[in-house]
Write a structure and sequence with these properties.
Number of strands: 22
Structural class: alpha/beta
Radius of gyration: 63 Å
Helix content: 55-70%
Largest sheet: 7 strands, mixed
Distance between the termini: 109 Å
Length: 880
C-alpha cells in the first residue's frame, strides 16, 4: 500500500517525535535507577565497615559501666542510709548506660530479638538494684555485699553473656552485609549493561531515523539550491515563530550577502533586510484568517535598494507550520526601467526640441533671406535709380550680416551641444580685450543716446591667460542685449571686480547693469534657454534670435565660470558673470618716461575716479578727484590760489549738471594755457573733437582706463600730439607689384576675393582646388608669389593637404611663402589645425575687406623682414 507523500511526511514527523520522547523517558529511568543503586551500594559499604566496630565499641562501653555499677553498688548502699539518695545515684548511672543503649539501638543491624533480650536483661538489673537498695537500708557493708552476690550479681552475668552474644553476632552480620552489597553490585552491573545496550540500540535507531530524515532534507535542500541557482530570487524559510531557518545559497549572487549572514542578521545590510522582511511577514499574518499568497514591493530603509517579496504558507494538518518568503532585488530592473523611461522622455523632448528648433531657425533664416531676395529683386527692377539701388544694397548688406550672425550662433550652439567647442588658454592683453568690447558697444549706445560707462573697482593684471575671443563674445552678447533693451536716454554700465586670487588663478566678476525694460520672474527662469524671448511683442520690436544668452551661458560654463541674472520689469536688469583666468607673475618694470604731474580726475562715478587715481598714482602722479564739474572748477581755482596749480585735468564727457565740454571751457577760462585738459569717454572721439577743441580740450582718452592708455595720453599731451581715430579706407592700401595665389573652389567666393584684391592693386592667380594650387606653385619661379590664400574644404585635395605638399616640396620658396587659411571654420581648434598644417595665419569667412588688407599688409611686411624663413613646426611665426 502506497501512502501519499504528504501523509508519509506527516507520519514520519509524528514517529520522530514519539521516538525522541521515549528516548527522554528511558534516559530519565536509567538515571534514577543508577542513582538509587549507587546510593544503596554506598549504604551497604558504610554498614559493612562501620557496623561491627560501632556495635563492639558500644558493647565494650556498656560492659565497662556494668563492672563499675557492680563494684559501686555495695559501697554506695553500705555508706548511705537514705533510700532516696541511693536511688538517685542509681539513676545517674543508668542514664549514662541508656545513652550507650540508644546508640547501640540506632546502629544495631542484627536480630531484633537479641536487642529485645538485651533490653530485658537491663530491665531485670534495674529492678534487682532497686530491690537491693530498699532491703539494704540499715545493713552494713558485709551484709549488703552478701545480698548483692546473691540477688543482683547473677543478673549482671546474664547481661554480660547477652552483650557478648551481640558482639559476636555483629561480626557475623558484617559478613552478611558484605554479601548483600556484593549481590547488589552484581545486579546493578548486569542491569546497567542491559539498560545500556537497550539505550544504545534505541539511540542508534533514533539517530538512524534522524539521519535518514536529514539525508532527505539535505537532498531536498540540494535540489532547492540547484533550482535557486537558475533563478534570481532568494528563498527564505521562517518557522511559526517567524525565525529564519533556511536561506538559499544564491543570496550572495542576488543580494550581495551570504546566506549565513542573513540567518544570523550579521552586517548592516543583512540586519536591515531581515528586519524589514520579518516586519512585512508579520503584517501579512492575521490571526483567525487563512494565510493567502501575497506580494509586496518595498524599499529597505538606509540601503536605497528596491525589493519585491512574496509570501507562501507551509501547511500541515495542525495548521501553518511556517512560511516561505521569496525575495528578489528589483533595484537594477527599476533603474533600467527608469533609464528607459528617461531615455524615451529625452527622445520625445529632443524630438519636440528639434521640431521647435527647426521651426525657429526656419523663421529666423527666412526673415533676412526674404529681405535679401526682395531687395535684390527691387534693385534689379530699379537698376537705373541709383539712390534706390544704394538703399537696397545697404538693406541687403544689413540682412546678410544678420543672417551671418544667426548662422554663427547656430554653429556655436551645435559645437557646444556636440562638445566640440574648446576653450583656448593663451596669453592676452586684458586691456585690449576690454577695449575691443567697448569700441564695439560704445557706438551702439551713442546711437540711442545711452550713457555707457565701464568701471574698474580693482586694478587687473595686464596679461591674463584664457580665451580672449570667448570673453569678448560673452561680454558683447550681454552688453548688446543691455543696449538693445534700454530705451533712449537710459544707462548701461560694465563693472569689473577682482574677486580673489588663488595660486596662479584670478577670479574676475563682470557685472552688466542697465535701467531698461527688465524681465518678469517667470522669464528669468528660462532666459538662458535657446530661442526664448519674453513675448512676441518684444520679439517683433527688438528682434533677435533668442540664442545669444543660451550661447553665453554655455560659454561661461565651458570657461569654468558662472552666470546669474537679477531683474525687475520696468527697472532694468543686472547680469553677473564670474570667470577664472590664469596670469603670469611677471611685473611690468619698464620705465613710464613721465614727469610728475599734479592731476585732477573729474567723473560723476566714484568708482571710475578711484580706479583712475589708483593707476595714475602708480605712474608717479599726484592725483585728486571731483565728482562733478562745479566741484572741479572750484578745486582748480583753489589750487591756483594756493600756488599749487594742477598740471593735467581728466574730465568725463557726459556728466549731470555741467557736462565735460562746459567744465573744460570754465577751467580753460580760469587757467588759460597753463594746464592740459584731457577728455574721458567710452564713445568715439571724432564726433565731439571739433567742439571739444573749441572748449580748450588738448587730448582724449578712451574708457575704460588702463595704465598704458593713461600713460600714452599723458605722453601725447606732453608732446602736444593729438590722437585721431582714422576710418578704414580701401584707398589707403596699395599693394602694387604683389602677386597672390588665390585657391578657392567656389566661383562666387573666388570672384569676391579677386575683386577685393584688385581694389588694392594685387595681381591674382587662381586655382580651383589644392591639387592645381600645388602644381602652380611648383611650376612658378622663385619669388613669384608673395602670398597664398588657401581655402580649406575643396575637392580632390583640401587646404591642409595642399599646404603640407607645398611645405614639403623642393621649391626655393617652400619654407618662406606665407600661406593664409581662408575658411568658414572659425573656431579655436580650426585655427590650431591650420597652423599645425603649416599655414601662417587664418581668415574667417565671410571675408572682411579691411581685414584682408590689414593681414596682407602685416604679411608682406613680415616677409620683407624675413619672419617667414624658418618653417620649424611647419609654419614659422604668424603675423600679428
Amino acid at each position: 500500500m502506497h501512502l501519499p507523500s504528504e501523509l508519509r511526511t506527516r507520519l514520519s514527523s509524528v514517529k520522530s517525535k514519539i521516538l525522541i520522547r521515549a528516548l527522554y523517558v528511558l534516559i530519565i529511568v536509567y538515571t534514577v535507577f543508577v542513582t538509587v543503586s549507587m546510593w544503596r551500594a554506598n549504604q551497604h559499604t558504610v554498614d559493612m565497615f562501620e557496623y561491627p566496630y560501632q556495635v563492639t565499641r558500644s558493647v565494650s562501653e556498656i560492659q565497662a559501666r556494668l563492672n563499675e555499677m557492680g563494684l559501686a553498688i555495695p559501697f554506695i548502699m553500705g555508706n548511705t542510709d537514705s533510700f532516696e539518695d541511693i536511688v538517685e545515684v542509681l539513676k545517674m548511672q543508668e542514664e549514662e548506660q541508656n545513652r550507650s543503649l540508644e546508640f547501640l539501638e540506632h546502629h544495631f543491624r542484627g536480630d531484633p530479638k537479641e536487642y529485645q533480650q538485651l533490653m530485658q536483661d537491663f530491665s531485670n538489673i534495674r529492678e534487682q538494684r532497686r530491690k537491693l537498695a530498699l532491703e539494704s537500708v540499715g545493713k552494713n557493708k558485709d551484709e549488703v555485699l552478701k545480698m548483692y552476690q546473691e540477688q543482683v550479681a547473677p543478673y549482671f552475668d546474664v547481661l554480660d553473656k547477652t552483650l557478648n552474644k551481640v558482639s559476636a553476632n555483629a561480626d557475623a552480620r558484617s559478613a552478611e552485609i558484605k554479601a548483600q552489597a556484593q549481590r547488589l553490585i552484581d545486579s546493578v552491573i548486569v542491569t546497567t549493561c542491559l539498560f545500556g545496550l537497550l539505550l544504545v540500540g534505541f539511540l542508534w535507531y533514533v539517530l538512524n531515523s534522524e539521519e535518514r530524515a536529514h539525508k532527505a532534507i539535505r537532498h531536498r535542500e540540494q535540489l532547492f539550491n540547484i533550482l535557486s541557482h537558475t533563478v534570481d530570487e532568494v528563498f527564505i524559510i521562517f518557522n511559526k515563530k517567524l525565525k529564519p531557518e533556511f536561506v538559499s545559497s544564491n543570496s550572495e549572487r542576488v543580494l550581495g550577502t551570504k546566506s549565513n549572514d542573513l540567518l544570523r542578521s550579521e552586517g548592516d545590510f543583512a540586519a536591515r533586510l531581515m528586519e524589514d522582511i520579518t516586519a512585512s511577514l508579520s503584517d501579512q499574518i492575521n490571526p483567525g484568517e487563512a494565510f493567502q499568497v501575497r506580494e509586496k514591493d518595498f524599499e529597505c530603509e538606509g540601503i536605497n535598494r528596491q525589493f519585491k517579496i512574496r509570501f507562501y504558507p507551509i501547511q500541515e494538518a495542525s495548521g501553518e507550520a511556517g512560511y516561505i518568503v521569496v525575495v528578489s532585488d528589483e533595484t537594477e530592473a527599476l533603474e533600467q526601467k527608469r533609464i528607459l523611461s528617461d531615455s524615451l522622455n529625452n527622445a520625445l523632448s529632443a524630438s519636440v526640441a528639434k521640431s521647435r528648433f527647426l521651426s525657429h531657425v526656419s523663421h529666423e533664416i527666412r526673415t533676412p533671406m526674404n529681405a535679401i531676395i526682395g531687395m535684390t529683386t527691387i534693385a534689379l527692377a530699379k537698376i537705373n535709380d541709383k539712390p534706390k539701388v544704394e538703399d537696397c544694397l545697404l538693406k541687403i548688406s544689413q540682412s546678410s550680416r544678420h543672417l551671418l550672425g544667426l548662422i554663427n550662433d547656430i554653429l556655436d550652439m551645435s559645437k557646444i551641444e556636440e562638445n566640440k567647442l574648446t576653450i583656448a588658454a593663451d596669453e592676452f592683453k586684458f586691456s585690449e580685450a576690454v577695449t575691443s568690447v567697448v569700441n564695439l558697444i560704445a557706438p551702439q549706445a551713442s546711437e540711442k543716446n545711452i550713457k555707457f560707462d565701464v568701471v574698474f573697482n580693482d586694478e587687473i593684471e595686464e596679461t591674463l591667460i584664457g580665451d580672449a575671443m570667448r570673453l569678448n563674445q560673452v561680454l558683447i552678447n550681454i552688453l548688446s542685449n543691455a543696449v538693445k533693451f534700454t530705451p533712449e536716454g537710459g544707462e548701461v554700465k560694465l563693472i569689473v571686480n577682482r574677486l580673489w586670487i588663488k595660486q596662479n588663478t584670478i577670479y574676475l566678476q563682470f557685472i552688466v547693469k542697465d535701467n531698461g525694460i527688465g524681465m518678469s520672474p517667470e522669464f528669468q527662469k528660462k532666459v538662458f534657454d535657446p530661442f526664448e524671448q519674453a513675448s512676441v511683442k518684444i520679439s517683433s520690436i527688438y528682434g533677435g534670435t533668442g540664442l545669444g544668452l543660451s550661447i553665453t551661458r554655455n560659454l561661461v560654463l565651458l570657461m569654468g565660470g558662472s552666470i546669474s541674472v537679477q531683474s525687475q520689469e520696468g527697472l532694468g536688469s543686472e547680469f553677473s558673470v564670474e570667470l577664472p583666468f590664469g596670469f603670469t607673475n611677471e611685473e611690468n618694470t619698464a620705465p613710464h618716461g613721465l614727469g610728475e604731474f599734479k592731476v585732477l580726475v573729474v567723473d560723476d562715478d566714484i568708482g571710475t575716479c578711484e580706479h583712475a587715481c589708483l593707476i595714475l598714482k602708480r605712474l608717479g602722479q599726484n592725483t585728486e578727484f571731483a565728482l562733478d564739474g562745479y566741484k572741479a572748477v572750484e578745486m582748480v581755482k583753489e589750487a591756483r590760489d594756493e600756488g599749487h596749480p594742477y598740471d593735467v585735468v581728466f574730465i568725463d564727457w557726459k556728466m549731470p549738471g555741467i557736462d565735460g565740454e562746459e567744465t573744460a571751457r570754465r577751467i580753460r577760462k580760469l587757467e588759460g594755457l597753463n594746464l592740459l585738459i584731457i577728455i574721458m569717454s567710452a564713445y568715439d572721439w571724432a564726433p565731439i573733437e571739433e567742439s571739444a577743441r573749441e572748449a580748450g580740450v588738448n587730448s582724449f582718452v578712451a574708457k575704460p582706463f588702463f595704465a598704458n592708455s593713461l600713460r600714452a595720453a599723458l605722453m601725447s599731451v606732453d608732446k602736444e600730439v593729438q590722437a585721431k581715430t582714422a576710418l578704414a579706407d580701401p584707398d589707403m592700401y596699395d599693394f602694387t607689384g604683389k602677386r597672390v595665389l588665390l585657391v578657392e573652389d567656389n566661383v562666387f567666393n573666388q570672384e569676391v576675393a579677386q575683386e577685393f584684391l584688385s581694389m588694392a592693386h594685387v595681381e591674382t592667380d587662381t586655382a580651383e582646388n589644392g591639387q592645381i594650387a600645388v602644381q602652380k606653385f611648383i611650376d612658378s619661379p622663385a619669388g613669384y608669389y608673395d602670398a597664398i590664400l588657401m581655402d580649406i574644404q575643396m575637392p580632390l585635395m583640401n587646404g591642409y593637404e595642399a599646404t603640407k605638399e607645398i611645405r614639403a616640396s623642393s621649391h626655393p620658396d617652400a619654407a618662406s611663402v606665407p600661406i593664409i587659411a581662408m575658411t568658414a571654420n572659425a573656431f579655436t581648434e580650426d585655427v590650431s589645425l591650420s597652423l599645425s598644417a603649416g599655414m601662417n595665419a587664418h581668415l574667417s569667412k565671410p571675408l572682411d575687406m579691411l581685414g584682408i588688407y590689414k593681414l596682407l599688409e602685416q604679411t608682406f611686411k613680415g616677409k620683407k623682414e624675413g619672419r617667414f624663413e624658418d618653417k620649424n613646426s611647419g609654419a614659422g611665426p604668424k603675423p600679428e
